[in-house]
Amino acid sequence: MIKENQQVFNRIHILLDAVIVAGSYVLAWYIKFHVPFLIDDGAGVLSTSIYMSALYLLVPGYVFLYTFFNMYTPKRATRRKYELISILQTNTIGILLFMVVLFILKQEHFSRQMLFIFYILNTVISTFARMGLRSILQYFRRRRFNLRYILLVGYSRAAEEYITRINQNPQWGYVVRAILDDRVPRGTMYKGVKVVGRIENLIYILPENKLDEIAITLSLSDYDQLEKIIDLCEKSGVHTKFIPDYNALVPSRPYTEDLMGLPVINIRYLPLTNTFNWLLKRLVDIIGAIVGIIIFSPFMLFAAIAIRMTSRGPIIFKQERVGFQNKPFHIYKFRTMEMRKESTSAWTVKNDPRVTKIGKFLRYTNIDEVPQFFNILLGEMSLVGPRPEQSMFVEQFKEEIPRYMIKHLVRPGLTGWAQINGYRGDTSIRRRIEYDIFYIENWTMLFDIKIMLMTIFKGFFSQNAY
User: Fold this and answer.
1) Bridge partners of 151?
2) Which CATH number fits domain 148-247: 3.40.50.720, 3.40.50.1220, 3.30.499.10, 3.30.565.10?
3) Strand duo 148-153 + 174-180: pairing
4) How far apart are CA 201 and CA 345, in angstroms?
């Protein structure tokens, strides 16, 4: 079974980490004291035996830190970047604690250069080792080895989404065996997973000990059974997880707080409500808008001349949109339609006859959006954020699409997470809002930078910009 395999794997992993820490330390000592250009006058102050005796503290200390920071827990569905962050964080804390111990022991002659080399080597080698192990395990899981078998208790939207994600990621090594539910008829199938009976059948299934996990995926209407099911699963000793059926209500990364022992889940946590985050984003917007105006000034001059020479009417098209905190503002674009039809409020579609020849080029290259750098300077927009809509569409969508109005809790953007993923123009509004809300709830400055870089390298020429 997986449980026994996991224990063996963890022991091997601990042994491997111990070897890596010791090997990195010895290699760092060799580099420091045997590579000619690194040797200095104080190189021989401490003996080799003193340096090597530090391994008695260093190796178990690092293994303890790795255990303390949960680096030996299964990470089948954890993204690589989070494991890399854990390695960097733990190794940084480890080297700092070791230096504190040296200070307490008054070992002022211990080479700081050697410790720095050890820190770099240990971090790099640990990273490659863990990424290699992850790749090997994923390879075997794709070939149906080292699998975890799961039973779902309850048929709901959460169950369907869970099955979908598992089917899309065979490298996780999860297999959903079946579903138990009281409301859905026996034999109902969803993507190869069948409802095999009622929830009360758990009493007979759990003692067989053929499952690695139980995932409770009850629908909201069945939550009165939750406490009884959890109690039954925990008595069996099977690892149990709870997947709530309120994805539409609670964000992907809920913000929780402890109210004197009472856990409280905040329905919406917005990183940009933090004053520092808000000021940082605004500063980047101002600098980015100024740089953008300077860089794109030749393109703006070309667009202005081309529009003036090919059609009658103003160069700049101004239209009211709904922005931050539902406040209306005028968005600026280069005019891309014939003047007599420009006022039409309907969206443009593929081969729209209203779009001029030069307008097609401006839309395809997104040059028509460049005047919005001035909206950004005025504080009406941001470099990155949800794209703003006309008020008539806002009134329509807020009644049809759940959580639509959340997009107005931040400034609208020149580009956004939805747009670089292909959702612009005549595409699904629901999917667009899902991407917008994900961006709002998971904002970081690095996320903004990623979107801006992807806009340059991926989204500058858009097939959906009719």
Assistant:
1) 178, 214
2) 3.40.50.720
3) parallel
4) 57
Judged on CB neighbours under 10 Å (0-12, 13-18, 19+), 256 is: exposed
**398-453: pLDDT as tens digits:** 888 878 888 998 999 999 999 888 877 667 788 888 899 889 988 999 999 999 98
Which DSSP category does 348 fall into? P
Domain boundaries, the chain: 2-142, 148-247, 273-457
The number of beta carbons lying within 10 Å of the beta carbon of residue 415 is: 24
Say if residues 118 and 169 touch (Cβ distance below 8 Å). no
Concatenating the DSSP letter of every residue in 168-187 gives H-GGG-EEEEEEE-SSSPTT
pTM above 0.70, yes or no: no
- Write the pLDDT tens digit of every residue in 47-99: 888 888 889 989 999 999 888 887 877 666 667 777 888 889 899 999 999 99
Q: Cβ(96)–Cβ(115) under 8 Å?
A: no
Check: CB of residue 142 under 8 Å from CB of residue 175: no
Helix spans in 143-236 (H): 157-168, 202-205, 226-236
Residue 199 tokens read as 């929830």
